[in-house]
């Protein structure tokens, strides 16, 4: 890999350390400015909210129970993608197997994706990958946990397919025109995982150390892993 | 992208498939009612088969409680962004890829020039 070309990810402003950003249950501060949809809520959203309010008023459920249920979803699908990519960084043979058949490679590490068919796509000095589902919010939950709010927003889903560079820039990821931006619309049966480039300054790091810089956003492709100065 | 040829998914390809990797295809320009997994923005556009994902239950049947049989062959198709969006602002080599079921595809040669 040509390491001399990696600097194109460097940002001129708003530099931020993602090294400890594993708090993927909370909306990312780097989400697009208009992360939350501006339009009026849809019929199903209104129906869902009304139903929840009614059930709470009638004493059938409590807001705390709803919150707990959402926490359980998170626990059921923990964020395990970082370990898989860290292994790929230190083990070239594993990386080849991951790129060839994502589900089989994850199974090697004891991570069973069950029904999910996983396609891992590798960032290179020439290609940057980013994932979206324009039709709904298809996401590799078994590997990355529940999708963040911005991933499900109409703003992200509609814009990243036709102006990916502008959206990536809002996440702090600026790419020169020489790098091909490869958008993957996760619109049917496959799920996707981005394998970012291993940044400079990580020689000799353990898999555990490497996993620390592999935030959820880097595996969706909206940001790239960075090493704090 | 040259190294990708050796990195195709090992998912079992459907034994009978109409298109092969590298074939130029066009997404049908149709607006049938019902549940479809073919995004509107890609209908009528031309691309190239990137890989064959295998055969999967037909989502257009699953959506209404049927069993999805017969299964349909699913492909990943690669499109040039400049051919998908007339006003695409990025460089000419940017691409978008997505999954398209076989019955939504036809050989590009039957359609002549790219749509729009």
CATH architectural arrangement of the domain at 79-220 in chain A: Alpha-Beta Complex
- In CATH, the topology of chain B is named SH3 type barrels
Terminal residue distance of chain B: 27 Å
Strand content of chain A: 5-15%
Spatial shape of chain B: globular
Percent of residues in helices of chain B comes to under 10%
Content-based structural category of chain A: alpha/beta
Number of discrete domains of chain B: 1
Largest sheet of chain B: 5 strands, antiparallel
Q: Low-confidence runs of chain B (pLDDT<50, min 5 residues)?
A: 1-10
Report the order of strands and helices of chain A: HHHHHEEHHHHEEHH
Tell me what portion of residues of chain B adopts beta-strand conformation.
25-35%
> What's the CATH first level of the domain at 79-220 in chain A?
Alpha Beta
- Structure summary, number of beta strands of chain A: 4
Shape of chain A: globular
Rg of chain A from C-alpha positions?
Answer: 18 Å
Residue share in helix of chain A? 25-40%
**Cα-atom radius of gyration of chain B:** 15 Å
Describe the structure.
Chain A has 229 residues and is an alpha/beta fold. Chain A has a domain at 79-220: Nitrile hydratase alpha /Thiocyanate hydrolase gamma (Nitrile Hydratase, Chain A, Alpha-Beta Complex). Chain A has helices spanning 43-57, 63-76, 81-90, 92-100, 102-108, 141-144, 149-152, 154-159, 164-170, 207-212, 216-220, and strands at residues 117-122, 127-132, 180-185, 190-195. In chain A, strands 1-4 form a two-stranded parallel sheet. A two-stranded parallel ribbon of chain A has the order 2-3. In chain A, 40% of the residues are buried. With 116 residues, chain B is mainly beta. Chain B has one domain (4-107): SH3 type barrels (Roll), CATH 2.30.30. In chain B, 7% of the residues lie in helices and 29% in strands. A 5-stranded antiparallel β-sheet of chain B has the order 4-3-2-1-5. The longest helix of chain B is centred in the middle third of the chain and has 4 residues, at 59-62. Chain B starts with 23 loop residues before the first strand and ends in a 9-residue tail after the last strand. The model of chain B is unreliable at 1-10 (pLDDT under 50). Chain A binds chain B through residues 96, 99-102, 104, 117, 119, 126-127, 134-135, 161-166, 177-178, 180-190, and chain B through 1, 7-11, 37-39, 41-42, 53-54, 56, 59, 74, 76, 81, 84-85, 88-91, 93-101.
């Amino acid at each position: 890999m040509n390491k001399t070309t990696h600097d194109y990810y460097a940002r001129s402003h708003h530099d931020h350390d993602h090294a400890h950003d594993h708090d993927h249950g909370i909306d990312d501060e780097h989400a697009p400015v208009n992360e939350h949809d501006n339009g009026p809520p849809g019929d199903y959203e209104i129906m869902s909210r009304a139903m929840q309010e009614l059930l709470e008023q009638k004493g059938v459920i409590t807001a705390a129970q709803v919150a707990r249920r959402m926490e359980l979803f998170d626990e059921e699908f923990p964020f395990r993608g970082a370990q898989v990519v860290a292994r790929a960084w230190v083990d070239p043979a594993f990386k080849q197997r991951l790129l060839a058949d994502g589900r089989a490679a994850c199974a090697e590490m004891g991570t069973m994706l069950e029904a999910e068919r996983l396609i891992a796509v590798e960032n290179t000095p020439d290609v940057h990958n980013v994932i979206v589902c324009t039709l709904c919010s298809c996401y590799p939950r078994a590997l990355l946990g529940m999708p963040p709010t911005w991933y499900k927003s109409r703003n992200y889903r509609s814009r990243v397919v036709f102006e990916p560079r502008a959206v990536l820039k809002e996440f702090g990821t600026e790419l020169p025109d020489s790098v091909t931006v490869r958008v993957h619309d996760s619109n049917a049966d496959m799920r996707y995982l981005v394998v970012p480039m291993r940044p400079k300054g990580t020689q000799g790091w353990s898999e555990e150390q490497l996993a620390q810089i592999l935030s959820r956003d880097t595996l969706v492709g909206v940001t790239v892993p960075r090493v704090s100065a | 992208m040259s190294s990708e040829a050796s990195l195709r998914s090992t998912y079992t390809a459907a034994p009978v498939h109409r298109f092969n990797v590298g074939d130029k295809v066009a997404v049908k320009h149709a607006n049938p009612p019902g549940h479809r997994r073919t995004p509107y923005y890609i209908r009528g556009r031309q691309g190239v088969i990137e890989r064959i994902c295998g055969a999967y239950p037909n989502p257009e049947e699953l959506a209404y409680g049927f069993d999805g049989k017969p299964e349909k062959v699913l492909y990943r198709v690669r499109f040039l962004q400049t051919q998908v969006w007339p006003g695409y602002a990025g460089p000419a080599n940017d691409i978008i890829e997505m999954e398209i079921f076989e019955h939504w595809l036809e050989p590009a040669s039957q359609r002549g020039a790219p749509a729009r």
